[in-house]
Design goal:
- Its cofactor is Mg(2+).
- Its EC number is 3.6.1.-.
- There is one protein chain.
- Helices cover 22% and strands 43% of the residues.
- The protein is an alpha+beta fold and 161 residues long.
- It has a single domain, classed as Nucleoside Triphosphate Pyrophosphohydrolase.
- Strand 5 and strand 6 form a beta hairpin.
- The longest helix is centred in the first third of the chain and has 13 residues.
- The chain is globular.
């Protein structure tokens, strides 16, 4: 049997408050980078659950997704290791909630609010080209209702069974 190629599924959150966007500054194999709160989809969770979890883990903020901004596919080849990964990322926008007093995820240096000009000014330190594209799409008003996403109950049964 041949191997089946599969992209790595991730989620990301666009969180805007008073013209500023919530980002994380994180350690990566390529150095310190800026990214939206983002991470991998875990077994047994929906895309919406994943983005809520990742936002809390990386920023200590509650997050309520309200819409899907877009789906982004990109390929990353590490300059250091040569590791080749294709990412399929689902990006949500929504409302920030309460900020908790809790440690941030391993590798996250800090959560930071940036305006658009500050985000553009540090584009050489973005984790991926999608970081700015996601914000641009959000600012352009791109939205799909969450009802466009469906998670079958079997997803949860596998994780719990």
């Amino acid at each position: 049997m041949t191997d089946v190629w599969k992209p790595s599924v991730t989620v990301a959150a666009i969180i805007e408050r008073e013209g500023r966007f919530l980002l994380v500054e994180e350690e990566t194999s390529e150095g310190i980078r800026f990214n939206q709160p983002a991470g991998h989809l875990d077994p047994g969770e929906s895309l919406e659950q994943a983005v809520v979890r990742e936002t809390l883990e990386e920023t200590a903020h509650d997050f309520t997704p309200t819409a899907l901004v877009g789906m982004y596919m990109s390929r990353y080849v590490s300059q250091r290791t040569g590791h080749d990964i294709t990412y399929l990322s689902f990006t949500f926008c929504g409302e920030p909630g309460r900020q908790h007093d809790r440690p941030l995820d391993t590798g996250i240096l800090r959560a930071v609010w940036m305006n658009y000009d500050e985000l553009v000014a540090c584009s050489d330190r973005h984790r991926s080209p999608s970081v700015l594209q996601r914000v641009d799409d959000y600012l352009a008003g791109k939205r799909l209702p969450l009802s466009f996403i469906s998670t079958h109950s079997s997803v949860y049964e596998v994780a719990n069974g």
